[in-house]
Structure formats: structure tokens, C-alpha cells
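Standup notes
- DV: blocked on the single-chain target, sequence here:
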Amino acid sequence: MINKTKDLLNQAKQNENESSISSADKIFADEAKAAQVFSTLKTKLQNINEWNAHSLMSSYALFDETGREIDEKRLYVGAFIRISLTASHKYDWIRIIDIYDAPDEFIVTVKPTFDPTAGNVDNSVISHFFTDESNNNFCLLKKDKKVAFYVIGLNEKQNTSETENTLDAIRNVAVNVATYLGMQKSEWEKFCHHFLEDAAGQHTDKTTLEKKTKVENYQYDAVIVGSGPNGLAAAICLAQEGLSVLIVEAANEIGGGMRSAELTLPGFTHDVCSAIHPLTIASPFFQTLPLDKFGLEFIQPDASLAHPLDDGTAVILEKSVAETARNLGADNDGYKKLVEILAKNFDAIAPDILAPLRIPSNPFLMLGFGLKGFNSAKNIADNYFSETRARAMFAGNAAHSMLPLEDTPSAAFGLVLLLTAHSVGWGFPKGGAQYIAFALRDYFISLGGKLETGNRIENIDDLPSSKTVLFDLTPRQIIRIAGHHLPDAYRKRLETFKYGSGVFKMDFALSEPIPWKAQECLQAGTVHLGGTFEEIARSERQHNEGKISEKPFVLLAQHTLFDPTRAPEGKHTAWAYCHVPNGSTADMTTQIENQIERFAPGFRDIILAKSVKNTADLENYNANNVGGDINGGAGIASQIFTRPVAKINPYIIPSKGLYICSASTPPGGGVHGMCGFHAAKTVLEKEFSEVLS
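- DV (later): unblocked, structure below
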């Protein structure tokens, strides 16, 4: 290995606690090709625009010594680089202190520095997460047929200087050194790989993309408005076919319901919306994506669900149908009869369950599912169960429908959740729901996709030109943005779209695990709190009738029992919500805490801090949560397959090039991406079949 890079690697390895190494390498067919790639890499590394082209989490700008952004994009010693980090309004600043240029080795060295654009520049105030003792080295090497790219960080010490700017940066960019290093390593690993792949000519075929978009003189083949799971799924599906795709997101972060934040205290990570993700794991489309290679890791609790009862016991939903049934007493056989065959064949029927109405690929299995699922939870409980335990557990699962349990198809929601527990488990991503969004985003960008955040679209005419536009939005937002492009009859039908009940959500920072009376609750990532079938049914009727329940059904997640990265050592989090009438601003704090205390006496004593969000807060956070409805519309029988309106193909908007890909289309709510997948397949068939043939 070339001496200078070898020395830097040795320094890093000698002080691993304050160093980092990211790398990519490739062996080519001959030395001539390796030399060509090395020369290309060297040219690209000296252009700040190339840094932006290959970065996934940050953007970069070049400034001169006077603090003026410069048009000349070529790096030089003494120049400043401003780093804008994803999910932060703050900047990190670095300065180029050395450029080493040898025949087969090229190194750019940078170090943290002050902000040269500040009004009264103080050279002693370092505007970076690390101190100015640290440095990063971008090393290119060629040896024989091999080309390697390293990013080597040395002396990475957290900047704890008590200045307003630095402390803001520390608070807003990362919680601690471990979190920041994790972000940085992920960034630099992908940076190295993308640079090398592009220089080797193995990145997305940009020439092909340009030819496709120039046919009708559009900037993009497709623009996606909204970056929830369905928007990202649609974008990926289209980008996989080589189309040029732009996602436009109103918020400063992508993800929709897949976001995480410190809602209570520093160091406590809470999922802002979705928290437990069986449908993500079960998604037929997401299963085909290499999301693990983009940092997504699922954690599986020992049990999917615990449902405590007033007698101090709990029903446990385990991976095994037999083990679950064994603890249901006289309902052992009834439970097996309900789920066993379908659970064994869930992989076969999931693509039909998570799809629009169509001829199923497994008609006999789907007939069995349909006869049970297109039913009310009450009918299923009455026909299959005779005792409290099984009836209560099924009620809690069916209550995810947010429908009265006497209504069809509340049973389908409960049945699907039971089947996922027995097939894929109710897992969740390590570190927070945001990591699903990050993995989907990074994979999308690796396909050549583009993202714009912080761009709220008020009028469809403000979008860049494209052959197609897909809305990851509910009907209300589509009418507001594109109503003037819609036929009157279609717009009026959208106006009759029914939204479901809302939610009131709480997050807790806790000093210790929840003190459940039924200790078996500590085995589960999810806990349903509501008691018997009859109690849960009453609660679900009440919010559908516009009433507030004093004993609401509460859904609770306890991630930190299985994922300690989400809280400081020894501390814990809890995530909980209950159903309320759509648009209700009632404060349900007392009712939720009472339900937790009912099954875990002393819970209030371990609360360190809490966050509450009513329906208005949730809609302000994400406009798709209309009136606090987190499912993109009511899951009522008349709307389950005909959302947003009754059409043979529900994804088509009857206006040239417009489509809807949100949870307001089949198969509805959940982090599965299948609404986006099916919408994208429609777009490919209707708009691009000739181009792609």
C-alpha cells in the first residue's frame, strides 16, 4: 500500500476510539482500466459538485477565505466547505489544509474550522461537531489492477465548547458521539462506494435516462409528491426501470409516518407515528429490496403481543400458533381453526391481501381468508371463541381497524395482524422508524433518484415538468393542489371520501421498564390495553359515534426492552395512543395513563417526561393525517376496495399523467408500500410501456 495512506490507516487503528475508516475498492480487468478509473476519481474528488452528486445525507458548498461562496468548484488548499446535514438547520464547517498528489495516490485532508460567513468572525469558535484537533482524509489509491477509496477520520473528539452555535449544532445534529459517528460512517461508506461505482461506469445509466426524458422535453419522467412509504415505494419501482424520478417532500425530513425524534428528553428516541412494523417485513415489494445493505435492521421481540387482563395474567401472541393456542384454554382448537392454515400459507396470500381487488393468484386460500376476514370481529369472536382470553386478544387486534367491532370488515384487520405475528413477527427497526425511511431513501438515490425536502407544493403547476405526477397524498390535499386539473365529476367524488377516527398519542421517557402486574408483558414489544372484548368494543363504538371514551383501548409499544439504542443506559421509552373522534382536540392524557396504571400500578412514578399530540398536532405534523386519521381514510366496507373512488383502476386520476399512490388507495394504511407499488405498476403500463419495451 502507498506509504501516506498506510500511515493514516495505522494511526486510525492505533486509536480506534477516536478514529473512523470507511472504504470501497474494486479490482479491474487490467491496469489500464484501473489507471483510467483512478484518474477519473481524482478529477471528481476535486469538484464539490461531485461531492453533492454522491452524498446521501449531506450537501456541500465551497467558500473562499472571505466567506464568499464561489462558482469555481475545484478544491484548493485554504478553501472552506460548508456541510449541510440532513434533518438539521445547522452547518458544519471544514477547511482544506492539504492536497497530496502523487502518481498513484491522491489525498485531500480537511479539518473542522470556524464559520467564515459569520458577521464577526472568531477563528477560535469551531463550527463543527468535532474539535479542530480532528481531521478527515479522502484517500485515492491505485495499485496494479486495484483502485481503492478511503475516508479516514483521526482524533474525532466531540466539541463541547460552550458557545451558542456549537451547542446548537450538537443538539440539532446528533445526541452524542456514537449517534454522530453512526451517521458519519453511513454517509462516508456510501460516499466511497458511489464515487467508485460512478467512476468505473457502473452507476445508473444517466444517458438512457436523458434520452427517455427528452422524448417529450420533460425534466423528469415522474415526480412524486410526498415521501411516505408509498411515495418512496412508487419512486423506487419507477427508478428500477431506469426512469428519472424526483420526490418532492414538504417537510424537512423524508418519511411521512416513518420518522423518529427526541420528543421528551435528550437521548430518548421516540417514533413520531408508526412504531411496530409487521407489514413492512411482510410487504411483498419491500422483501425484494436490499434494504439491509442500506442500514435497515429489524429487531424481533420475544413475543409480538401481550394483552393483560384484570386477573393479573396476560394473553401472549407468540410466533408459534400451537404455543399461542395452548394458552387459550378451551379456545385452543377454535384459535387453530381460525388461523393455522392461513398462517402456514401467509407468504402465498400476502400479495393478494395487499393488493387492489383482482382475481387472486391463490383463489382457494383467498376464499378462506375472505370468508373469515370480510366479517365483523364480533361474529368471528362469537363463532370461534367462548372464553375471555381469546376473545379479548382478537378484539385488540381487530381494533386496529378503528371501526366498531360489530362492523365488517373489522375482522380482516385482526386476522391479518394475527397472521403476520405467526409468519414474520411484529418487528421494528433498530434505532427508530426513521431507519426504514433512510434505507428506502438511500436505495432510491443509489438508483439515480432525486429528492427535494422542505418544498411544500401549493399548486401542481409549480412542479418541475414531468410526464407523470404521483400523489402520496389523501384526496383533500389532491383537491387543494390539483383541483383545477380534475374533471368536476371526479373532484366531487373525491370530496365525499370518508376519513376515519383520529388518534391521541403520547410518548414517555421512563426511569425503568413498565411495572406490569403480568410479568409476561415484558416479553412483548406491543401491549394492548383495554380488558375484555366487551370493553374494547364499547371503546371503539364510542369514538365512531363522536364520543370520548373514559376507558379507551390503548395501543402501547415498549421498544427499549429490546433496543437499548433508543434511550440512555438503564432508561426506557413507551409509545402509546388511543382512538378519538376525527378532529377531536380532547386531552386523553389522564385516560391513557389510567389504562396503563390499571395493568401496571406505579407507572406514573417512573415517568421522567412525556409528550402529547392530539389530532390537530398530528395533522399539522403531516397533512395526510386529516383530523388525526393515520390510515389515509376510513377502512369501512364501502371504501376498502373502492378508495378513493369506485374505479376499475383506483390509482388513475382522470387527468393526463396524474396518479394517486397514497394509503387512500388499496390496500390502505400501514407501512407496506404496496399502494405505491401498485400505482407505479399502473404508471409503467399506461405511460412508459413503449419506452421500456
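- Follow-up: Residues 209 and 244 are 6 Å apart (CA to CA).
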